[in-house]
Amino acid sequence: MLRVYTLLILLGMFVPFCDSRKPKAMVRINQKALDSVGDEGRKALKAALKTELPDFVDPQESESQYTPNAILDSDVSDFSLKFIPDYGIRLSAAGYVMLKIANHQKIKVSVNITGDISVTQASIGSPFLGVSLCKTTTGEITVAYGEDRLKELWKPLQKYIEITLPEKICLRLSSMIERLNIFMGTLLGLHPLGPETQISYSLTQLPTFTKDYMSLIVNTTLYLLGKPIVLPPHEYSLTLAQEVGSKNAMVSFVISEDLLDSIFFLMQKSGSVNLDITGQLNSKDNQLTTSVLGKLIPEVLRQFPKSMPIVVKARINASPISMIHKNGTSILFSYLLEVLVVSSNSAFKSLFSLDMNVELNLNIILSGVKLQANASLLKDINLKVTSSNVGAFDLSKVKPLITSVVKKPLLDHLNALFDLGAILPTIAQVGYIKPQVSTYEGYFVLSCELHFQK
């Protein structure tokens, strides 16, 4: 049943929070996902059919009655889930149930079950599943084991089964589907996104259905220290290709530039992308000293004839910009670099500051339920002098030194953050496997299959 829970829980995209701008993403669930839960759905329905039926009273003897205590056994040989265009999901099943009459008699009844599952929205904002239409018909009724007296009751017993059994089965089916709404709540809450940051999702509108898939447009809300942040105004429109993702995938996630920009903006607000770079003071190869820098800028050597350690403080000074094109995904970070001397009393003195632009190529990775990335330099680091306390100097001579001391620590730091990942909508013990990434103008699509952990 876990697979059924997982499939339907993907509908649950949290409660809307504030009215500020929220970046959007899309989740598409394909027919292959419905097919994959067939076995689990069949087992769940079989278990749900183990129930008691109302008493059957002998119409010829008012004080004597045969009581169908329970449905002893059932076999759901055929089970399928199909999308209903513009509506929901249709459940179809066929098989038989075995009725126990009194203590010894057993009757086998073939049944056909059809249920239409609607998807509406609960008062708290999460989707609510229900069976809007159920139809159960009985077929052949045979005596598997019984006494001769059953022959006398055969016609009233048949009528009783034809009236009572379909109603009971539909009630059990509705109860089974409605119980799934409990599992919808397991997605409510905040998912860690990075240091002191979280992400949550909310359904922006009811799902849309075609004969091949179900689509959900979702909002994301980003949090810093448990409070939702207000995103800066941003004009963005998402135009999807007619077909997105792999046709063989079970689930596809559409991730837009707007969503990436918002996540990186949150990282900017939290300060997690900032970095202090210090040299190895006891190392012979330590380049972050005034003596090394003084060879390139004479004024540094004049002000600090005795070698002193240097610290480079990298502070992001503009909102990161994501760029998704057909040939890949990149991100532009703009930093202000402060190059400072550490004096003997631990005070800092600024030597100069630089504007630094770093454009990174992002390789998208899926690990379990986390969307991760690793970054590499797409272009050379760009530097520009913004202020100086050591006079004018030739940046072209200083750039190789700054680049060499900044490049590796910055990439290591950013990749450690990207490795934390963003959790995709899911429930416990379910992961996504066999990912395929397709990039388009303005968004990329992550297509994958479902993996159920035991």
Low-confidence stretches: 4-19
Q: The biggest beta sheet, please?
A: 9 strands, antiparallel
Count the DSSP helices.
Answer: 8
Helical coverage, percent range: 10-25%
Radius of gyration: 32 Å
Strand content: 35-45%
Global outline: rod-shaped
Overall mean pLDDT stands at 84
Query: What structural class should be given to the helix and strand makeup?
Result: alpha+beta
Give the beta-strand count. Answer: 23
User: How many angstroms does the end-to-end distance come to?
Assistant: 12 Å
Summarize this, please?
By secondary structure, the protein is α+β, with helices and mostly antiparallel strands. The protein is about 25% helix and about 45% strand.
Report on the architecture of this protein.
By secondary structure, this protein is an alpha+beta fold. Helices cover 24% and strands 44% of the residues. The protein contains eight helices and 23 strands. Strand 6 and strand 7 form a beta hairpin. The two termini are 12 Å apart.
Q: Which key features would you list for this structure?
A:
454 residues; alpha+beta; nine-stranded antiparallel sheet; eight-stranded antiparallel sheet; 8 helices; rod-shaped
SSE topology sketch:
Elements: H1 2-9, E1 24-30, H2 31-36, H3 38-48, E2 56-57, E3 65-66, E4 68-84, E5 88-101, E6 105-121, E7 127-145, H4 154-184, E8 191-194, E9 197-203, E10 208-209, E11 213-224, E12 227-228, E13 251-256, H5 257-270, E14 275-278, H6 290-294, H7 298-303, E15 310-316, E16 321-325, E17 328-342, E18 348-367, E19 370-377, E20 382-388, H8 395-420, E21 422-423, E22 430-440, E23 443-452
Antiparallel strand pairs: 1-11, 1-13, 2-3, 4-5, 5-6, 6-7, 8-9, 9-11, 10-11, 11-12, 13-23, 14-15, 15-17, 16-17, 17-18, 18-19, 18-20, 19-21, 22-23
